[in-house]
Amino acid sequence: MEYKTLGGTGLKVSRLCFGVLTIGPLQANLPLEQGAAVITSALDRGVNFMDTAELYGTYPYIREAIKNRKQEVIICSKCYAYTRDGMKESLEAALEGIDRDYIDIFMLHEQESLLTIKGHWEAIEYLLEAKSKGLVRAVGISTHHVAAVRAAVDIPELEVIHPIINMSGVGIADGNVEDMLAAIKMAHAAGKGIYGMKALGGGNLLSHAQEAFNFALGIPELASIAVGMQNINEVDYNTRFFSKTYIPEDLQERVVRQPRRLHIDDWCEGCGACVKKCGASALQLDGGKVKVKVELCRLCGYCGAVCPLFAIKVI
Fold it and tell me: Which of 75, 80, 93, 231 has its CA 20 to 30 A from that of 297?
């Protein structure tokens, strides 16, 4: 496994970051021991970086997986808190949840612009105090917005940025691939540590996985790329790919043939864009939300590409 230093943080992270959302209650909802075993298999293969969030409900999996290797792993979590007390509560929940006395990176979750960052400044100030006490090693933001990456460039307190970036621009809320790449390059030049999310477009680019991974790995400014993995076959495949080692044909077939489904997040607002795009008539509006006719869905990912809220995943 290759490792890179995350900006000016001094944190040396694996090129493949384990995106823990996938195994948790919002998606695969694996039993605790099974989910922890998937994480452990990644750690055993050289992955030393994990990305999670308060919203994901995945702290128990991480706690179980790292109980005998707490100092070997770099963990990033995030929350939506915008007040001092709210951030204090979220940070304490993270430390208790993973059973460690510090967390490597803590972020404001899903920032949109300079205005939203300013609106959360009280929470950032608390994180900076926590950093001075050794409870946090670095502070940052995650975002689907080009504007937020650009805003963070001029805010020295924000050391790490976790932006969405993939070869098709799926999920970028306010621009295209070129816009996001330009913002990432600017942030890197300013010394920010950057690791990407959604290289597979929330699963919508799974049919072009190798091309999508190569695109993300070809972005020199990214120290790491967070990828959701829900079983040991995926871990085996992804660690081999990121390490540029041989991938057996039977492993490729197991990953390709793995049963998958279309997942609609709770924040779907029923705009109907995906229904119009679906050529298989597999989507319909029901009670203001999109529902999937599983027997008709081709898992083509076209619906996810047009969702303005990035609420459609293939898992």
Answer: 231
